[in-house]
Amino acid sequence: MNCLVCVEPGNMALELRPRPVQAPEGWVLVDIAAIGLCGTDYHIFEGKHPFLDYPRVIGHELSGHIAEGPDAGKLVVINPYVSCGSCRACRRGKPNCCSRIQVLGVHRDGGMCSRLAVPAENLYPADGLTAEQAAMVEFLAIGAHAVARSGVGRDDLVLVTGAGPIGLGTALFARLAGAEVHLLDVSQSRLELARELFGFDLGHRPGEDLLQGHLREGFDAVFDATGNAKAIEAGFPYLAHGGSAVLVSVVKDDITFNDSEFHKREARIIGSRNALKADFYRVMEAMRSGQILTGAIASKKLSLAELPDRFPDLARDRGHLVKVLVAP
Length: 328
What we know:
The structure is a single chain. The strands form four sheets. Strands 3, 5, 6, 9, 10, 17 and 18 form a seven-stranded mixed β-sheet that branches. Strands 13-12-11-14-15-16 form a six-stranded parallel β-sheet, sandwiched between helices. It folds into two domains: 2-136 and 297-327, Alpha-Beta Complex (Quinone Oxidoreductase, Chain A, domain 1); 142-271, Rossmann fold. It is an alpha/beta fold. The longest helix has 14 residues, at 137-150. It is built from ten helices and 18 strands. Helix 4 (137-150) packs across helix 9 (277-288). Strand 14, helix 7 (229-235) and strand 15 form a beta-alpha-beta unit.
């Protein structure tokens, strides 16, 4: 089978590999149906991911059909976070931050191929969804998890910095929680996309004086989805007293802040990593009920064979895209 491999930064190639015919005990063979391209994939291509060794088969936003057994043909969402089940985080119900986690497409080869073996416990029935919708669940679950971690609720003031796919997913679930959601991004085109496709009218550019009017005391939660250390640091002054800074993106750099300002606000920094099973199911229910309009999310559809040539352009143009979907 053909697999899309990031051989090294800047080099994507199709590589012929054996098609799996037998899964390890407790694992299931899944025929991949659709794959979403993620910011993580672009960071891998650009050499910016902190947890990755090359070469790597990318792809972790996945849907597929169970390949064999009594459930053969059943459409599933694949949770790409393979946890150990025995570390302290796993024992405390936090497999999303397992100390020995193996994320498909990052720590181990992913699903940019036609068939993959996955732990049975990582497969969630996608009843009522299309294969393409099911491939969108994982990235939206990251935003749903971040919002759940924050405790944001009705009438809270929320600022999401970074209006890419992860930021938009976070903004969508903050809005569903009842918050007033503002977006901050350097790209006017991203803000316009968020307004046109999802109705986020409260968009801002860096340099604007946000802290005025009913926002003068700051935001109850600031979610960073930029993947930029300077942008994370620039978000701290927007926190209201008692507010929370939620770091959804991950960067290689150190982050600094003024301790006295942070302390007097009794602010919190919350790391939000991956998602839990409950977050996946929350997203699927939001899709089925029409709370999340998936038609607005899918920006472009490509075949696996097109990607080696198209990937550099996609990486450059991702400011104008929400989600690229790939058929294996």
